[in-house]
Amino acid sequence: MRGTDTLDALTAAIEHGRRDEAVALMRAAVAAGEPPRKMLDALAAGMADVGRRFSNEQAFIPEVLTAARAMKRSMAVLEPVLVDAGIRPEFTAVIGTVQGDLHDIGKNLVAMMWKGSNYAVVDLGTNVSPETFIEAAGDYGADVIGLSSLMTTTLPAMQRTVRALRCAGLKARIIVGGAPVTSSFARRIGADGYAKDAAAVVRETRRLMPAG
Ligand code: B1M
Questions:
Q1: What's the CATH architecture for 91-208?
Q2: What does the pLDDT read at residue 72?
């Protein structure tokens, strides 16, 4: 197989969650000495493709999770090569579900999409206080902070968190999302960005940080 064929096949294997095939193709690409950036782009393209289908309701959560697992296993093969080549994650993202809210399935999907786009992701879990967001964003030097809320009753906690992050003077961009969150709510509470689903969050991050 030619190099581009291997990478195209890798993208397709990730998109369709064919984990063993993806890992084998990743190993073949590494053995063939493909440029690390191209291999990384091939992985990201697979996640972007399944994310696009998910946004268009042509793919569903299990397919995104299967693709993410294939991406994670292939990434493990690629990681040492990236380290040797001095390729580091583009951005650091801190993410969590806001205080009082224990829902994490959507938040985990967002974290996976970011990982698939070569962002270092610090996942704070659920029921995260504003203070914990501030501390983690400072400790990890976050470029972007993601807040998730699944209940109308925890939207005030999202607002409090954005306000606290602003008061702390952090430079990181803040993106919010979750079923009851709208773009107008996001604007009203002073967030930098809003995404309606896990695929849109990658597009929104790129809009806010064009180098990404
Ligand atoms: Co709960 N729950 N729940 N629940 N639960 C909802 C959210 C609810 C709408 C159900 C209902 O009443 N119809 C309702 C909220 C009503 C409201 O708004 N006020 C509700 C309730 C009331 C509750 C409890 C209070 C129930 C009770 O105990 N009486 C309780 C709350 C506990 C708490 O949080 N303190 C509770 C508990 C639970 C379970 C533990 C049983 C379980 C959560 C398991 C888990 O997350 N590990 C659960 C579940 C599964 C749901 C529903 C059924 C599904 C949520 C989900 O995972 N969706 C939900 C009803 C529904 O949505 N049909 C419901 C799939 C997921 C992929 O979608 O999370 O929307 P979603 O994420 C999307 C987008 O929103 C977006 O991208 C994701 C992927 O596309 N997104 C972001 C999410 N975060 C983002 C961040 C971004 C950008 C995009 O940027 C950073």
A1: 3-Layer(aba) Sandwich (3.40)
A2: 87
